[in-house]
Amino acid sequence: MSKSPGHRLHPEHKVKESAVAERMIAVFAGQTLADSRDVVRVDEDGHPPRFYFPRGDVRQDRLKRTETSTECPFKGSASYFDIDLGDQSAKDAVWSYEEPYDEHQGLKERMAFDESKSDELVVSSLP
């Protein structure tokens, strides 16, 4: 893509990516939506830690792309997805940086879950 304008303008702002050693899962309303040993943790100033799962380890059949998009000056444009189990759903609870800025190419083809969107959504590690 290109260099992040956020990192150029605000070099003091930290966005750190690191590999997670443990197996991680994302569960919504008792259903496992993601299960992976290849998760990237993102620690960004002013935000809670986020965990990015490889797209191939996420149940795409339980997600529906929405019209929502946001722009992060550090990571790029995010596309959003609803979780839809039929009887239960969570709006814009999953996002992906499909074309992240150069500094965050490690997020490409990965998806993160926003636990604040529902009490039924939990991201955790397994032994």
Q: How would you sum up this structure, described in words?
A:
By secondary structure, the protein is mainly β. It has one domain: Domain of unknown function (DUF427) (Metal Binding Protein, Guanine Nucleotide Exchange Factor, Chain A, Beta Complex). It has one helix at 5-9, and strands spanning 15-19, 23-28, 31-36, 40-44, 50-54, 63-72, 76-84, 89-97, 110-113, 121-126. A hairpin with a 4-residue loop joins strand 7 (76-84) and strand 8. The longest helix is centred in the first third of the chain and has 5 residues, at 5-9. The mean pLDDT is 96.
Name its key features.
127 residues; mainly beta; Metal Binding Protein, Guanine Nucleotide Exchange Factor, Chain A; 7-stranded antiparallel β-sheet; 3-stranded antiparallel β-sheet; 4% helix
